[in-house]
Amino acid sequence: MSVGKAEAHSPDRASSTGFSCVVPCLDTIDEAAIKDHLAHDQFFWLDLTTPSSKEVDALRELFGFHPLALEDAAHFGQRPKLDRYGDYIFLVFYGARDVPSSEADLLREVQMFVSGKYLVTLHQDQLPVLDEQRERLKGVLLHSEQFLLYRVFDALTDSFFPLLSRIDDEIDVLETAVLAGPTDEQLQKLFAMKRELVAMRKVVTPQRDLFARSIDELADLPGLVLDERDYFRDVYDHLIRISDLIDSYRDLLSNTTDLYLSTVSNRQNEVMKQLAIVGTIFLPLSFITGFFGMNFGWLVTKGITPTWTFFVLGIGSMLATCVLLLRFFKRKGWM
User: Fold this and answer.
1) Statement to judge: residues 62 and 208 lie in one domain
2) Is residue 184 located within the same domain as residue 251?
3) Number of independent structural domains in the chain
4) Segment 32-40 long-range contacts (CB within 8 Å, at least 24 positions apart)
5) Is 119 helix (H, G, I), strand (E, B) or coil?
6) Which pTM does this prediction carry?
7) Which of 238, 277, 257 is CA-nearest to residue 9?
8) Which of the residue ranges 176-185, 221-230, 239-248, 299-308 has the most confident prediction, judged by mean pLDDT?
9) Other CB atoms closer than 10 Å to residue 114's CB: what's the count?
10) Please, are residues 146 and 114 in contact by the beta-carbon 8 Å criterion?
């Protein structure tokens, strides 16, 4: 199995609207620059990492955001959602980290304020995918404001693919290891990967359904220049692929869990069979030694008095019993 990433679209493609712009990309609150961009109706992108309460207050003063939207922006851990506030939209969108340090560090929440004049993104930790887009788009002539939104959505969406590719490889390795010999560490790894997929599914599925509706919501924003909706449909297609991959990997992990339990059960059956063989062999031996160990007068004085009786009746009968049982087990295929 393989997980791929779609090729990025070129910003130099001819615009069907004849519109073009250079979008300023800011990573700090520069009040003078923001006020100037708003006054001249110049679309810009403001990307803030771990915004402080002072910066949130500055956003309220500069943009006039609704108190409910700012309250959500101050508290991360929101579900994927889209709220319309007049001429702008508050959107919660998720990306992923390729190598998370912990299960809670798997997903990356990005809160967005989108209007026809600006894109404001807020997130708790540094996001390399957004930093890369911000650097790549500085000074680049874009054929529509929509293209900037597409690049942000596409970067966050495609950040799931490396993580899913890693999970795909780990499932293959895990299946091979389980067949070689199941261990408790493998079972813990199975459960950890299942929790990762469940965590992704909780955001990807509603995010996929949300984005289908957000295309029309974004198109209705006043002042936002849209070239065409193919870009947003491309992001939606990626979300569908990610959702399908998550479901497929969950099924694979369930199959791997069944394989683990089946392998453990087969090994337990082998052990039980070996113990049954040992017990079966020692059962007649115990009878023979018990019989000849009985302290009856006739048996002691006449039955087993000669030396040959020890070797023939005692040792000989036990050896003959072992040989007959071993031949019987081999004919049955138990050994």
Assistant:
1) yes
2) yes
3) 2
4) 34/62, 35/62, 37/117, 37/118, 38/62, 38/117, 38/118
5) strand
6) 0.73
7) 238
8) 239-248
9) 23
10) no
